[in-house]
Specification:
Two copies of one chain form a homodimer. The first copy, chain A, is of the alpha/beta class. The first copy, chain A, has two domains: 4-266, Alpha-Beta Barrel (TIM Barrel), CATH 3.20.20.105; 267-362, no CATH class. In chain A, 42% of the residues lie in helices and 18% in strands. The first copy, chain A, has 15 helices and 16 strands. In chain A, helix 11 (268-274) packs antiparallel against helix 14. Chain A starts with a strand and ends with a helix. Chain A binds chain B through residues 38-40, 42-47, 63, 67-68, 72, 75-77, 81-84, 293-294, 296, 306, 310-312, 314-315, 317-319, 321-322, 324-326, 328-330, and chain B through 38-40, 42-47, 63, 67-68, 72, 75-77, 81-84, 293-294, 296, 306, 310-312, 314-315, 317-319, 321-322, 324-326, 328-330.
């Protein structure tokens, strides 16, 4: 199953305008997915997310399998019901969190045993189980289990992780049985061009509904990341969506769209929002700063979000200063809207053939 | 200025149906005011408050004078702008918090000096200053500075506090200069019928736009409170609104309406909501309880709030279990809506002449 249509390609870059059909509606690409880790995008109601322009969310399989557990999600009618989100949901495989959040116990070709970061209980995860869980969660896009490596790892370890990622992807595909769910594979290989090519080639042979790039945005820097993305997308089939996992800043996103990426997720808009950091067209604002104390300006002039239409910088600074929940809520609303406005502009610029010039100017101004 | 109209009185109790006009719109009474301590009802946007049916909010002068300070509120365009609330706002005088939250330094007939609970700085508050601050905040209803006493205080201390409350009310009225702002006096006197009568009589002679009962709901119990309320309202002019400060549970409110009260405020719906406690027609629910783990039921069957229309008890339990902000947000929405539905029912029952029978049944069932 592949329900991805390319509506337009940019003449001067690899950027593509498209639509990905899912069981819960279409995703306009390039798309940004707010992160709803454990079944909620922190601090926001689905109504506020929809109003901010999000049409697809990401949820973390690792967190959901620990709490409330897949059986509970099933009993509650599936992930969409739990979250009260009627649009598309992408679930990751859990692999990244196993490697970053939990204490690893064993890893071998069969799978991985880890100690839960919640209560230390030992849990087994393998390709078949990761596929089965995502299937039962009922997400619209599932990800293959992959082995993530840290930035700058030795060549031998990198090769071993890439080989395992390929073998696990094959097993995920064999285990995958839900015709209403897309299955994407994850290309690993660090910033090693040869490893990326090798991994991409092998995964493409297995024929997935889409391809993600994993293991980027973890310290390699903007230039290396963009170069790796560009080199990797060139090896992926045109007609399948491409997803850059966990990235990133507005600048990263603009550059990666130019390098051929269609989908993104990142905690930045909500995590930064909770920490009083606002994204704006004119650069970041830190709302705890006392310079805003009596400012009647909105966070971003011209922004159409609920926060900017109704609250002054001074009010928001006061809410953060007094630890009121409304501060994090309002800046999360604004930042998610900022990201969605960015994606809408990107799609508009690709549609009108102006993406390359616009993106070059943006990257020059902000990087 | 008194813009209170009684539309209907209950034939079998002291309950009244009315409308209080303010510079920011009408308040349908009996009314419940959610508490927006420092300029925000914790966890809720004004949009969500409006959707929950609130038409008037309370804000705390004590908190606002400490942070962000009255000058900052003025610079930000006043309290309505700070809060982004276009409806009526009532501010208390700050007195209650001075006596309950801060460390008292001096109290005498002139006023009170206290140490801020935020940074220990010494602050002076007196009748004129409390009036001036509320005037500058721009609330629609201001309260006179009063001296609160603890439950069970000695007769001598009670008398001294009542006398001071009367003297301060007189000074507040003299200092009050805003024709767009109602000024209410506060009747004190504990549960001592003689003191309450004395205080009410003296305050009524001074002629205020409305009268509040203070110093109740602080440990005297439901019966004593209701008796004191009934005895006090009998001494207040029919044609002025009556406000029972800081009260209370649904049962307290039903009983107090029957005893002639028109306005209420209380932190219960939001504070309890943040602590996973939901009010329902069938009694309270504690949403952390594992009995809800796989419940697909809404918090309250038949409730029309955003929480009940979109989320299961199981989902909400999961959000509390994982410390997600959405849990407190959703239950605050539900509880505020529950209180507003209660007030709407109360108004409807007074309107149809059925209040007494309905209230008697409710109090029997829930008390």
């Amino acid at each position: 199953m592949s329900d991805y249509r390319i509506l337009k390609t940019d003449p001067n870059s690899q950027a593509r305008l498209g639509r990905l059909e899912t069981s819960h509606g279409e995703i306009a690409t390039p798309a940004f997915m707010p992160v709803g880790t454990g079944g909620t995008v922190k601090g926001l109601t689905p109504q506020q997310l929809r109003a901010a322009g999000a049409d697809v969310l990401l949820a973390n399989t690792y967190h959901l399998m620990l709490r409330p557990g897949v059986e509970v999600v099933e009993a509650l009618g599936g992930l969409h019901r739990l979250m009260s989100w009627e649009g598309p949901i992408l679930t990751d495989s859990g692999g990244y969190q196993v490697f970053s959040l939990s204490q690893l116990v064993t890893i071998n070709d069969s799978g991985v045993e880890f100690a839960s970061h919640v209560d230390g209980s030992r849990i087994w995860l393998d390709a078949e189980k990761a596929t089965d869980i995502q299937n039962r969660l009922g997400s619209d896009i599932a990800m293959c289990l992959d082995q993530c490596t840290s930035f700058g790892v030795e060549a031998e370890e990198l090769k071993s992780a890439v080989d395992r990622t390929i073998r696990w992807a094959k097993r995920c595909k064999q285990a995958h049985s839900n015709p209403n769910q897309h299955l994407f594979a994850v290309v690993q290989g660090g910033v090693d061009a040869e490893m990326r090519s090798y991994c991409a080639k092998k995964l493409v042979e297995l024929d997935f509904d889409g391809y993600a790039l994993g293991g980027l945005g973890i310290g390699e820097g903007h230039e290396k990341m963009t170069a790796t993305v560009r080199q990797s997308t060139a090896l992926l089939p045109e007609e399948r969506p491409r997803y850059l996992m966990g990235v990133g800043t507005p600048t990263d996103i603009i550059a990666a769209v130019g390098a051929g990426i269609d989908m993104f997720d990142c905690v930045l808009p909500t995590r930064n929002g909770r920490n009083a950091f606002a994204f704006t067209r004119n650069g970041p604002l830190r709302l705890r700063n006392s310079v805003h104390i009596d400012s009647t300006e909105p966070v971003e002039q011209g922004c159409d979000c609920y926060c900017c239409r109704h609250f002054s910088r001074g009010a928001i600074r006061h809410f953060f200063n007094t630890a009121e929940m409304l501060g994090p809520i309002l800046l999360s609303i604004h930042n998610v809207r900022f990201y969605q406005r960015l994606m809408a502009t990107i799609r508009e610029k690709i549609g009108s053939g102006e993406f390359y010039g616009w993106a070059s100017e943006e990257l020059e101004n902000h990087y």
